[in-house]
Amino acid sequence: MTSRFDGRSVIVTGAASGIGAASARRFHAEGASVLIADVQEAAGEALADAMGDRAVFLRTDVSDENSVSAAVDTAVERFGKLDVFFANAGVMGALGPIAKLRAADIDHTIAVNLRGVILCMKHAVRVMQPRRSGVVLATASPAALVGGVGPHVYSATKAGIIGLAQSVAAEVRPDGLRVNAIVPGSILTGMTADIATGDPRNLEAAAKALERSNLIDRPGLPDDIAAAAAFLASDDARFVTGSTFNIDAGYTYAPGNSPFARGDWAEPMGMYEGGRHT
Predict the structure, then answer these.
(1) Residue span of the structural domain in which 175 resides
(2) Catalytic: which of 154, 251, 253, 272?
(3) 56 pairs with which residues across the strands?
(4) Which of 181, 210, 211, 267 could pair with 165 in a Cys bridge, judged by C-beta atoms 3.0 to 4.6 Å apart?
(5) Is residue 262 in a domain?
(6) What CATH code is carried by the domain that includes residue 92?
(7) Regarding predicted confidence, which is higher, 219 or 226?
(8) What is the pLDDT of residue 137?
(9) How far apart are CA 109 and CA 118, in angstroms?
C-alpha cells in the first residue's frame, strides 16, 4: 500500500460500516489519521480499535450542526488540521409512492442526505479555507441521474449533492480547495443486502441477488469506492474538481450490451435509406 496520506488527517462520515468503513480503512492504510464519524457507536468504536493508532471514533449525527462542527473541531484538535472530509453518511429514508409519502420521513431523509452534506461542507471549508488546502468528497448515487432506480426523496437528495458539489467547487477553487461527488453503483453493503434480501447481514445472498444485474464479473465492493475516494483525495487528482465520478461498472452512462455489435450484427454492414443494406 502506498503512503499518499502520510501526515494528513481525514474525516469520514457514515464510517462505521459499508463504504464509509472501507474508506476509513483505506485512508488509514495509506498513512492518514482518521476520525470515524457515525451514529453507530458500537460499530464505530470497534472499527477505531481495530485500526489502532491514528484512528478515533466520534459519535456524529450529520443532521445536527453542532455534531458536525464538533467532529471537525475534534479532528483539528487531535490531528492538528483537516485535509480531507468525505461526506458519505446517508439513508434510503422515505419509501413509498409520492402520493403517500409521510412528511416526517421526507424531512428526516433531507436532513441526513442533503442538509447533512451541506453542513459537512460548511464546516470542512471553515477550517480548510484559511490553510488554502483541502479536499471535500460527497457520496451521490445513480438515482441522482437515472429515474426510477431509487426512492423519490433519496433520488432528489442525491441529485442535490451533485449540484452542491459543483457549486461549492466553483466557490472554493480560488482558495486551493477541491470538491467532488462520487456515484457508487450497486455496492455490496449492509444497506444493499437489506434491500435485496431483507437482512442487512446476509451479504452472501445479496451478492447472489446482484449477480443477475452485474455489468461486470462481480458486484461492486466497498473497497472499489474507497479506492476512488483515495484517488480523488490525493495529489494524483489535483486537477480534478467539480466532477461527478461514477464508480458503477458503466450503469449510469453505459448500461446497454451493445446490440449492434453482436448477434445478427456481429459482422460489419451498413444500413441506409429504405432498408438498404451494404
Answers:
(1) 9-185+220-253
(2) 154
(3) 35
(4) 181
(5) no
(6) 3.40.50.720
(7) 226
(8) 99
(9) 13
Q: How far is CA 109 from the centre of its chain?
A: 16
The predicted pLDDT at position 196 comes to 63
Nine-digit cell at 170?
A: 466553483
Active site residue 154: yes
Which conformational region is residue 61 in: left (phi greater than 0), alpha (psi within -120 to 50 degrees), or beta?
beta
Q: Which of 128, 186, 140 is nearest to 165 (CA)?
A: 140
Q: What are the pLDDT digits (tens) for 75-118?
A: 999 999 999 999 999 999 999 999 999 999 999 999 999 999 99
Closest CA to 29 of 8, 14, 58: 8
- As a whole number of angstroms, the distance between CA 71 and CA 225 comes to 23
> Does residue 144 fall inside a structural domain?
yes
Strand partners, 184: 247
How far is it, in rounded angstroms, from Cα 54 to Cα 56?
7
Q: 230 and 201 in contact (C-beta within 8 Å)?
A: no
Number of Cβ within a 10 Å radius of residue 100: 7
> What global pTM score does this model have?
0.92
Question: Which residues are CB-contacts of 261 (< 8 A; sequence separation ≥ 6)?
Answer: none
Number of domains in the chain: 1
Q: Is 211 contained in some domain?
A: no
Contacts of 140 (CB under 8 A, 6+ apart): 158, 159, 161, 162, 165, 181, 182, 183, 244
The three cell numbers of residue 72 are 471537525
